[in-house]
Amino acid sequence: TPVAPSNFLRHVIESDLTQNVYATRQWGGSPGDAAHHAQGMADPAKVRLRFPPEPNGYLHIGHAKSIWLNFEMAKEYGGVCHLRFDDTNPEKEEQEYVDSIRDAVEWLGYETYLADRPSAPGTMQPHEYFASNYFDFMYRAAEYLIEAGLAYVDEQTPEQIRTNRGDFNTPGTDSPFRSRTPAENLARFREMRDGKLDDGAAILRAKIDMASPNINLRDPALYRIRRATHHNTGDTWCIYPMYTFAHPIEDALEQITHSLCTLEFEDQRPFYDWLLDRLAEGNLIASPHPRQYEFARLNVTHVITSKRKLRQLVEEGHVDGWDDPRMPTLAGLRRRGYTPDALKLFCERSGVTKSGGWIDYASLEAALRDTLDPIAPRAMAVLDPVKLVITNWGELMGGDEVLDDCTAPLNPRDPEAGERHFKIGREVWIERTDYEDVQPKGFFRLFPGNKVRLKYGHTIECTGATRDADGKLLEVHATLVPDTKSGTPGADAVKVKGNITWVAVADALAAEVRLYERLFAAEKPGSGELLDELNQHSLVKCSAFVEPSLAKAEGDAGFQFERHGYFVVDAKAVGADRHVFNRAAGMRDSWAK
Ligand code: ATP
Ligand code: MG
Ligand code: MG
């Protein structure tokens, strides 16, 4: 699924390639930095992109957009894309999340484009990048800024810092610590590093312009004190770099060419350039340095794309874990029956633009149908079963126990796919909604006196039904119309308007089918109280009967249950003695109703 032939990012990359911008990249740092420099630079002219998730939760559909964009563009321009764990915040990051992110990227099929070299010795996995591996370099970069008079240690309280930053209408006020000498700042920063100050007692700030109209340039924080154990570096550090300081450095060290991010970061771009310009002047990084470009984040109606809010749903037990099939996480979408191809098609259709908007949830389902329809094996399943008895079966077929063989194509769209086989007998399960005592307008299925075809089987004529004292339907009765077996000569001589799905009582498999509705009733969730926006009826479980061809069904490959939509075996139910199927999407857009 390629990225659309024309988008603004392509123009940037193609123009940089034409002008050989990165082929001329020069670097003149100290030998210690050469290790970083040498890391990726087999070919400096290569387009080098990255996907930099923070391992503080599972990836969601929004991340899929970013993964798809970066990896597809890198692939297309003969470049590479780094999977980089942006793990500079020790408190919220966990190994479980690192593993889940790796799984998701691999599942989407991008592991082979991860990098053009193995990682440095001592890193966790080949072809993966960890921001925390650059902590030493980041520290040196901070000392460089201090020595150059471009950073200072501020010991105002967090409250004072906030107040003195000013706001949109008011310029900021200089900190009393702003005029410290480089030597004083260096000594104090080393004390921060050595654990001589309490958490929150001081921060390192860039010295830029407290009156800048861009508040991000009013001496942004670079380092803070935080005594927390880091999943990679343990207790080595008690100071940690701020994201806005760390991220440009990560890009520069990995020799990224184009740093693609979402629009929220637009106001950070001046600082990104300020920092890398200063570090390039100091010969700490190569020139020209990476450039940041912003695109609109993906928003999908009825879906939350915020790891923090998704974590809340998991932790408060509103869903059954990060991979609950209702979750918009890649793990959840996978368990629900979404495929990598469907998600990539969805990303492509959603476009790469500079202005945000909401994509209709229906287009996610449409992408699934469009990718599965040509390839998904078909099967019959009866979700709300009631028994149909063919009362003259024994008489016509030579005994009540006699079973007849039926054949159906695995996929009518793909004649090569082969056939499936199942039985028909005196008793079959049909959908409860396929019978009515009195014909409603436009209804051509079962009602007394009407003939229908049991799909791939015989034509029957409905003779009536029995009900219990409460009026609940118990059994539907019908008679077989002779010589109407599907696939035999003259089978269609008796014309019928209804063609219904069924499974034989004799060979049907009992199954549990899980029907999912949108997790959020609110069209644009995330603005109000999360729990008020939840759909309380997002999961319906039904006891169903399915075709025997599904006995060995397993794995990620989906099925089309005729009439009902696209289903997949629930990954957590494999191996259990019950067959559990999740519905990924209905046959057509049901959201419109
Ligand atoms: P969240 O708010 O869910 O935690 P994030 O942006 O903080 O999202 P990161 O782990 O930092 O999460 O994201 C990694 C990359 O994925 C970033 O480059 C980010 O811009 C991108 N990304 C995150 N959400 C979306 C989205 N909805 N659409 C497109 N890209 C996204
Ligand atoms: Mg982030
Ligand atoms: Mg976030």
From TrEMBL:
GO terms for molecular function: ATP binding; glutamine-tRNA ligase activity. Keywords: Aminoacyl-tRNA synthetase, ATP-binding, Cytoplasm, Ligase, Nucleotide-binding, Protein biosynthesis. Its EC number is 6.1.1.18. Signal peptide: none annotated. Residues 376-480 form the Glutamyl/glutaminyl-tRNA synthetase class Ib anti-codon binding domain. One of its GO terms (biological process) is glutaminyl-tRNA aminoacylation. PROSITE patterns: AA_TRNA_LIGASE_I. Residues 500-570 form the tRNA synthetases class I (E and Q) anti-codon binding domain. It is an enzyme of class 6 (ligase). It catalyses: tRNA(Gln) + L-glutamine + ATP = L-glutaminyl-tRNA(Gln) + AMP + diphosphate. GO terms for cellular component: cytosol. Residues 46-372 form the Glutamyl/glutaminyl-tRNA synthetase class Ib catalytic domain. Transmembrane segments: none annotated. It holds the Pfam family tRNA-synt_1c. Belongs to the class-I aminoacyl-tRNA synthetase family. This is Glutamine--tRNA ligase. It comes from Variovorax guangxiensis.
